[in-house]
Amino acid sequence: MKNTRSAAATKQRTFEERLAQRLRSRKISDAKLRARQAQGKIRRFVNTNFFKAETVASLSLRRGECNRCGACCELVFKCPFLKKNSDGSSTCGIYENRPNSCRLFPIEPRDIMEVRGTCSYYFIEKPVRLGKAS
Ligand code: SF4
User: How many DSSP H helices and E strands does the chain contain?
Assistant: First the structure.
């Protein structure tokens, strides 16, 4: 009887420990994603304002269309100008005057990773230039 209770307590503790471990790892992965998102916001701000040629080159590899999910407007924090529509789509309250980093999202494939894959854009590989035949 005592052994059964002790085994049950061990099993319970193991379950609780596993749950705590899972919550800890989820918190860590959430914190890592937030850190990546914050880094991405700064990177896009710098690139769209100071590295325009590189930004244009990167955008030339982008394909697809915006599905208006609004996920890029909720990176790190929800943009105060974001309006959610009843059909699930999103609208920007300052669409005509939005900053370049919003206007041009996503600029690189890693930007898409920051929105957990909800973005409908994708990037193609950079085409390889073949040398002239001699
Ligand atoms: S995450 Fe991509 S698809 Fe969604 S609103 Fe932003 S740019 Fe459009």
Answer: 4, 4
